[in-house]
């Protein structure tokens, strides 16, 4: 069992309830660590025999207490990196030292069930920062307390000492458990100093709001609002990673809203707070910002197999073009004509700035571009050709587009909401019916490029592409053609094209 519990400052309002929860959480953490005895015990023994301390630390302790420990285990020790390397070489299945300049060595150790545990061990640190970058001047420390006080938040500054005899000693000099029980994020040192040392911690605060459902202490919130400009010191790659983790949390609406409330989003994702349009009596419309957060929530409810980053980003940003396209209608009201086109362009620009992959940019912007297409379906008047085009234009994004469109139905009018659902049910059913006969996700012309060149006597060049595009349009309009019909249509098109060229109407 845990022994030698050391408390930090702070007392929740109900000491009895606090103690009950504390005991229950520590007991759960103890059970979790006991299940990892085949990984932890030999490592603790090795460090003990070498005359050194070993602590499980940081997010690993927090997650063990919360009952959500994964396979990433973080440790700290008084042993210097060379000593740690020697211990790991004898203990682990794989060892690498890419972080050794920061005093960190990493390893993989398979547990008794064959699961690979990712192990990271860092020598105590007592770093200093230059106030320009987030990269510290690495200084090894001599005490656990000195190492813990330099961490980002008190809930991440708890530790468990692993003794060679199997005992686990919970250490909490900074009140991390009290903060965890209260569901708040606070910094070990003054938040102004913490965020000046590493501004990325401000984004991490929003990420933890999303992942843990915690709130910020007033002093942390105040420091973040006053220091937003410091985030400009952080690379876009780091910013992108934190934004993605925020989007993938259990409470992303809270995390995104915290980004906006603190003003951080104005620096890293200004399009989102930019959706907070003022409403007046002449231009009534939904609050675009809160509507977008509602769509994000409803899209999450439709995820079939866990978090879908593409769908979540598309849901948040689907109406991002509305502020730029808002216009008053004669007689009152407001329009947002072509906001999906403008929004898709804005999404591509922002995601390129954040250095997302080309595929990610195309998928998210593609969903934003397509999300309004359904509203032309009306009462089901689309021809089969229009249904084919809808599915073909979406391609592999079609399942996500279905979810995004359904999530976008946020009207409070129950009758209208039921009508929208029924109408989209109708469209999905028609797509399924046509899909039974045709491969809509991969619509191709009835003749390929080689067949086109043979039939028309062409060499590779622009005319082959024009012929291919013509046949694809024909395929979308009329469905599959048999070979004779496709060849006859191609010859007819080719003859017409040549006649037009001879008349000088087309080069």
- End-to-end CA span: 84 Å
Helical amount: 40-55%
Specify the oligomeric state: single chain
Structural class: alpha+beta
Task: Write down how many β-strands occur, each being a DSSP E stretch of 2 or more residues.
Answer: 11
- What is the CATH class name of the largest domain? Alpha Beta
Number of helices, where a helix is a run of at least 4 consecutive DSSP H or I residues: 23
Radius of gyration: 30 Å
Poorly predicted spans: 1-11, 280-285
Strand content: 5-15%
> In one word, what is the shape?
elongated
CATH hierarchy: architecture of the largest domain: 2-Layer Sandwich
Our count of domains comes out at 3
As laid out across the biggest beta sheet, the strand order is 3-4-5-2-1-6-7
CATH superfamily (homologous) name of the largest domain: Beta Polymerase, domain 2
Main sheet overview = 7 strands, mixed
Mean pLDDT: 86
CATH topology of the largest domain: Beta Polymerase, domain 2
């Amino acid at each position: 069992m845990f022994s030698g519990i050391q408390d930090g400052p702070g007392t929740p309002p109900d000491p009895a309830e606090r103690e009950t929860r504390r005991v229950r959480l520590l007991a759960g953490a103890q059970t979790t660590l006991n299940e990892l005895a085949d990984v932890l015990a030999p490592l603790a023994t090795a460090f003990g025999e070498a005359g050194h301390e070993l602590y499980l630390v940081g997010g690993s302790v927090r997650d063990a207490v919360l009952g959500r420990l994964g396979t990433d285990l973080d440790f700290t020790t008084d042993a210097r990196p060379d000593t740690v390397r020697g211990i790991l070489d004898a203990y682990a299945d794989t060892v690498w030292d890419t972080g050794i300049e920061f005093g960190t060595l990493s390893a993989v150790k398979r547990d008794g069930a064959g699961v690979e545990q990712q192990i990271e061990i860092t020598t105590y640190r007592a770093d200093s920062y230059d106030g320009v970058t987030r990269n510290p001047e690495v200084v090894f420390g001599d005490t656990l307390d000195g190492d813990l006080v330099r961490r980002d938040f008190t809930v991440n500054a708890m530790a468990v000492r692993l003794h060679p005899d199997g005992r686990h000693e919970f250490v909490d000099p900074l009140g991390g458990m009290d903060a965890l029980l209260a569901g708040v994020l606070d910094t070990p040192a003054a938040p102004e100093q913490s965020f000046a040392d590493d501004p990325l911690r401000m984004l991490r605060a929003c990420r933890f709001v999303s992942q843990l459902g915690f709130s910020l202490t007033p002093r942390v919130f105040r420091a973040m609002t006053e220091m937003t400009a410091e985030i400009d010191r952080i690379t876009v790659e780091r910013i992108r990673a934190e934004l993605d983790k925020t989007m993938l949390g259990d409470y992303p609406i809270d995390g995104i809203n915290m980004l906006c409330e603190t003003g951080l989003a104005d620096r890293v994702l200004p399009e989102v707070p930019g959706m907070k349009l003022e409403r007046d009596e002449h231009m009534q419309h939904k609050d675009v910002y809160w509507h977008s957060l509602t769509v994000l929530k409803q899209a999450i409810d439709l995820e079939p197999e866990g978090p879908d980053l593409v769908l979540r980003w598309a849901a948040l940003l689907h109406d991002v073009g509305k502020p730029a396209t808002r216009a008053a209608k004669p007689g009152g009201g407001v329009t947002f004509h072509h906001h999906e086109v403008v929004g898709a362009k804005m999404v591509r620009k922002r995601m390129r700035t954040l250095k997302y992959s080309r595929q990610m940019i195309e998928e998210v912007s593609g969903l934003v571009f397509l999300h309004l297409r359904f509203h032309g379906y009306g009462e089901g008047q689309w021809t089969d050709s229009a249904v084919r085009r809808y599915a073909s234009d979406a391609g592999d994004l079609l399942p996500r587009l279905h979810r995004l469109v359904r999530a976008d139905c946020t009207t409070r009018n129950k009758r209208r909401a039921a009508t929208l659902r029924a109408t989209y049910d109708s469209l999905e059913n028609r797509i399924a019916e046509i899909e039974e006969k045709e491969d809509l996700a991969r619509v191709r012309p009835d003749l390929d490029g080689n067949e086109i060149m043979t039939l028309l006597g062409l060499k590779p060049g622009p005319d082959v592409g024009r012929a291919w595009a013509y046949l694809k349009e024909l395929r979308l309009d009329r469905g599959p053609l048999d070979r004779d019909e496709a060849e006859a249509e191609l010859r007819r098109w080719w003859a017409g094209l040549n006649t037009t060229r001879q008349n000088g109407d087309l080069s």
